[in-house]
Amino acid sequence: MRFTKTIGTALALMTSVAAAQAAPEKIKIGYISTLSGPAGSLGEEMLNAYRLGLEHTGGKLGGIPVELVTGDDQAKPQTAVQVARQMMERDKVSFFSGLLFSHVVDAVNAVVLPRDQIVVAPVGGSSETAGEKCNQNFFMVSWNTDTMFEAIGSQIAKSGIDKVAVIATNYQAGWDAAEGFKRGYGKAPTAEILVKLDQSDFGAELSQIRAADPKAVVVFLPGGSGIAFMRQFQQSGLQRTVVPYAATFQADETTFQALGTAAKGLMNAGPWSPYLDNPSNKRFVQAFREKYGRNPSILAAMSYDTVLLLDKAVSDAKGDVENPATFREALRRAKFPSIRGDIHFGNNHFPVQNFYLSKVADASGGGLHNELVGSIFEQRADAHQAKCTMKW
């Protein structure tokens, strides 16, 4: 009997020790983003929303206190790699989050994923990371760029518009946008124009668009380039006869002030709207308005939603974020109260979700807003899942 008691006590102690090891006293998040330079305002927008999400979870994930270790990648892959290495080796972060641009995401992934570090990125996915380069340690919370433009192509096709020009940046995300549009539209555009990432003068490209005589133009030009193009598009007079289409982030609360009336009438697609009717979204939008005096942007929304996902996943993993297999499985199957409503991960760790059509219009209280028009896709997966070999 004494021997049995001893074994029972030992097992209880072992279980207690294992539980203590599984749940750390503090979770360190390695948050890398673009916090300076021309795109620094976008990174700050996302970081503010991430912090708001942590405020709403009491500064904890799954009941465990969080330390947010932030680093500025300056939109440079080599800088992001240096920051990631420092976070792994000096700061001993539990996992990585943040991130903004796909080429920076790719650079960070190449360094941290082989070391069994998990990355939960709000944005910055690409067709490659969704397809043949999918990885068990990488999760994309928001979208794949080409799925948003597939939605745009589908919407334009439904509208019966038969002549369309596409203008996009000449890098992976721009290529994805153009390909996604073609897939949704069902045929090649009348004109397809690729430009430099930091281009600011679009005189030649606007002449090409005018010569093509389209009824719509599809735009993927992030940051300052997009602002410059939309202003010049308006000044050229093309806005009177050509309807602009883009992803929601092309014209939202981060750019309305700079764009002014050049943004009005822009039709845009995305997986979220501040007007979606669910409790999580209402709480988020109201809190963001109270804090910053305006609606959140879609980048802010994806950042906030990342925290909601992490909170549920850490809870389901009982805090064991240091065990990649346990944390990975919890992320895959987390049923969290997303501000987008019904959402789940596909086999490639990219979301299956709804996509909506919005239109930039005058807001009742002044300024501009993205007025929700309707639904484009319901529970849509990206087109690259079949190329991903992960099974779970």
TrEMBL record:
Domain spans labelled Leucine-binding protein: 26-361
Keywords noted in UniProt: Amino-acid transport, Signal, Transport
Record's signal peptide: 1-22
InterPro entries recorded: BCAA_transport, Leu-bd, Leu_Ile_Val-bd, Peripla_BP_I
Protein's GO biological process: amino acid transport
UniProt KW Transport keyword: yes
Family the UniProt entry places it in: Belongs to the leucine-binding protein family.
Protein name, per record: ABC transporter substrate-binding protein
Organism (species): Microvirga alba
Lineage of source species: Bacteria, Pseudomonadati, Pseudomonadota, Alphaproteobacteria, Hyphomicrobiales
